[in-house]
């Protein structure tokens, strides 16, 4: 998992700029092979399909924040009881240079890359671990009907490296609980990765999108490669 997270961050930084060279017209024409790919299901509820098809498959519904409280998503937990909670596990997994791990999983030294704003950071205190689809957005999109345990699992998801991501505290707090109609990462070359991962995360949890969110995602993905995504469904 640690290698997968690091590889994801580095590849995103290297290759995302290429995606901006694709115009909307080209983006629709180029991925003809990908668009012919069937949805593939496996025994462990894993699906593979082009990202635009994944977006089209999401339920479109109005959102409601009635009853929301961040406390309804218990985090950060230490599921494997190794002394490091989910936040620390993400920081360890995504470190460019590994930090030293002290008592109670205190992290010293190390370095990280924040793809939201294309920054390198040298202290864990400078980073937040972002829920790619914010907790409030998840609530609005279907998590309000989940059990407390299901919301806890969502808030501490270490099984899909797209769900939680270490980024600069400044960029995460700028994002807050906004969806892609209101916020995209300051570093534009990361946009394609960001919206693709957003769709993957909503697919994993079968969360809905509201009409404005669907339109914003479709517009942004039109300028990105229609790459296949593989998602193991959590619900």
SSE arrangement:
Elements: H1 2-19, H2 24-29, H3 32-35, E1 40-41, E2 46-50, H4 51-57, H5 86-94, E3 95-97, E4 100-101, E5 107-108, E6 111-114, E7 119-121, E8 127-131, H6 135-140, H7 148-155, E9 164-168, H8 169-175, H9 191-204, H10 211-221, E10 228-232
Antiparallel strand pairs: 1-2, 2-10, 3-6, 4-5, 6-7, 8-9
Please describe what this structure looks like.
By secondary structure, the protein is α+β, with helices and mostly antiparallel strands. The chain is 38% helix and 15% strand. A hairpin with a 5-residue loop joins β4 and β5. α1 packs across α5 and α4 crosses α9. The two termini are 21 Å apart.
Task: Give me some keywords for this one.
235 residues, alpha+beta, three-stranded antiparallel sheet, 10 strands, 38% helix
In short:
With 235 residues, this protein is of the alpha+beta class.
Termini Cα gap: 21 Å
Task: Indicate the proportion of strand residues.
Answer: 15-25%
Low-confidence segments? 6-43
Give the H and E element order.
Answer: HHHEEHHEEEEEEHHEHHHE
How many β-strands, per DSSP? Answer: 10
Query: If helices are DSSP runs of H or I spanning 4 or more residues, what is the number of helices?
Result: 10
Shape: globular
Average pLDDT works out at 86
Broad structural category: alpha+beta
Compute the gyration radius: what is it?
Answer: 17 Å
As a percent range, the share of helical residues equals: 25-40%
Please state how the strands of the largest beta sheet are arranged side by side: 1-2-10
Largest sheet: 3 strands, antiparallel
